[in-house]
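thread: overnight batch results

M.L. [08:02]
morning all. the overnight job finished for the chain we discussed friday. pasting input first so we're all looking at the same thing
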Amino acid sequence: MPPSLLEPLVPRRATRQISIGGVLVGGDAPISVQSMTKTDTRDLTATVKQIHDYVAAGCEIVRVSIPTMEAARVFSEICAQSPIPVVADIHFDHKLALEAIDGGAACLRINPGNIGSKDKVRAVADRAGTKGIPIRIGVNGGSLESDLLEKFGGHATPTAMVESAMRHLDLLEREGFYDIKISIKASDVIRTVQAYRLLANQTNYPLHLGITEAGTEWGATIRSSIGLGILLAEGIGDTIRISLTGAGEEECRIGHELLRSLELRSGGYRLISCPGCGRLQIDLHKLADEIEAMLKTIKADGYTFAVMGCAVNGPGEAREADLGVAGGNGEGLLFRKGQLLRKVEEDEIGTAFLHEAKNLVNGNGQ
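M.L. [08:03]
and the structure it wrote out:
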């Protein structure tokens, strides 16, 4: 059965819907992909450039850290130049939150319990409410309140994390503020999954998924894919961020691929390729990398491409794809929508494949 005909494993959990600068989160809105800038926020040029790079990789919401008032003052220009909604990441100082709201933030990421007194929480909630700006409550296992750590034996257990989230939620609801989403992240898969499951049973606010401090690209991709994949397959989650110690663009690409793999988002293309074995008679690794790089230069949303290495599964998989190649002895057979197009020499496969891919997406040669 073609992937586009498959249904999600479990229906999405019913949640409230909020709007982050026009991007809907929760309800029946598509699950959105987020990232966070890694530049010095005070460097306007570098930060705006990074946002544009993220957008090219599929980012739909971007978060920017605001650690100082100087950064907060630059933030307004970042918002003005950003093509996507910008979330202000605030800790400890409610004045930074107020400055970010006035500067054009599409959302705030705060923990109400760490920005000061009840009056300060009320000031932020009132200003955000007046301007229609949602607030994300963000609980991390590594920064849990000291009294909760003491209560749970010095450990940020899933139950402790959920109690922290509900405590912060209560502070906002007491001020009549309900335009909220929640994240509840740990750096390990099992604790994160357990925490989100508990939280999903206690509230219908939209949930922002992630594994925090997940690590460098190789390990973080695996941990994030497992943790978020489990939750998304259970119908939990309304927006996601893949956290990598590395390029934010890769966070966005991985996020979209994860959602497409679970049939939770469409768009983009799907490239399948075999792992290779002793039957190979072409340089499959080189060819797959070459074709993947070429495909990034065209807009091929919704298409499936196949790069296969030998005659066992190759012709069948290539025929199933919109466009595929099955390798042979220094050559390849090109298939388009199940029909054999032609045979090409190995050193010409990449160029021929790109030519046919452009014909496919442009509707030529049908």
